[in-house]
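Protocol step 4 of 6: structure prediction from sequence.
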Amino acid sequence: MPPGSSLLDILRARAADSPLNITATVIFFLAIVHTFLTARFTDAAHAVQRRRAARGAAPASPSLLAEALLLLGEVEVVFGLWVVPLIVAMTAESGWDATTRYLNDTVNYTEALFVVVIMALASTRPIITLAEGVLRRLAAVGRATPAAWWLTILIVGPLLGSFMTEPAAMAICALLLSRQFFDLDPSDRLKYATLGLLFVNVSVGGTLTHFAAPPVLMVARQWGWDTAFMFMHVGWRAMLAVILSTVVLWLLFRREFRDLARRGEVRDVEIPDEDAVGSGAELLPVPAWIILVHVAFMTWTVVNAHYPALFIGGFLFFLGFTRATASYQSRVALKAPLLVGFFLGGLVIHGGLQAWWIGPTLRYLSEAPLFAAATVLTAFNDNALITYLGTLVPDLEPQLKMALVQGAVTGGGLTVIANAPNPVGQALLGRFFDHAVHPWRLFIGAVLPTLVAVAAFRLL
């Protein structure tokens, strides 16, 4: 394109050069629309099941239509399902060889694989025991009431994500919230406010360092950002946003928290998964040395996060260790991590084909509009992809780099697809919502903490 070409001219030229750009983007936005309709598919599946029961159908007789609707209602499989028409379109346009090269050689699945492993590790009984023990001491300052646990988990947990990675923090926070909060059956308003706050806090709380938040990790090496730089320019603002958002929501719901405190003790942590280790036998208290071994496996995974052969190999050794120490292990969660990995794998396949319009859009924006655009675009795409595309823009000014990253982490809680760890939280907490997490209600629940993060990053 000649110098001085408008953004619209560039997009038109790219669309004309490769019609697949338009097709891939249409399929991508259809997948996004599908994510907002998952609750309707789930409701339809239950309606089909009720009609079959009313007609006297045998309970053991499955309904193909109901099962298909339930599949369409699973957020974790949406993007994977829409990869199928994408493959058909790519093959028709460019041929099978080009399609396989893109899927196998171009798309990077490392982040999806990492999330599967770190989520499974963070969900184990020894790690939850360690995390709960540390947070219990902090919650004891507030007499370990539901409000004290809620404040502790939603402030300390996301900030610890800067050191243990955001997916691990999300898994631990979600599991502890399930026991110390969601098991008390709060109102739907408070449930969605909590889930939205969790997503936003994890997204911004992982920015105290340069290696824990995926959108920061994507740019840190190319732009020369280290932990000291991140804390001075982003981290302290992120801490303030996490604390203020959580305290404000606590004040808004303080009456309900008082009611929850009267509902008695909560149950033990349950890690839902079909693959039980040590089932059928009474579990023994977890000794310190097993906790240390689990921490060592997590450390190995985090340190080698860029090398799938190393962290997957370590995970296989870990599975053997859990089998050998079955008397101290509850379950190794595999179903939920694999579904989340499938979700992220489908997302990066679609997202990689959106650079044709996202890249030029970022290049043509000044600081404030770039921050706003990054926040909005993140709601419809993984924020790590947004910042990665920023590294492809040549000679980006330092203030524009900062606006891009701050906007990407600010919008990371608005939808399930906005930040890679969000599907982890939904997978672990979705059972507490009526049929499924409703995307619009999640968005509304995340608006207030998102606005607090906007104020922290742009007004301070």
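Step 5 (inspection) to follow. Residues 17-80 form one domain.
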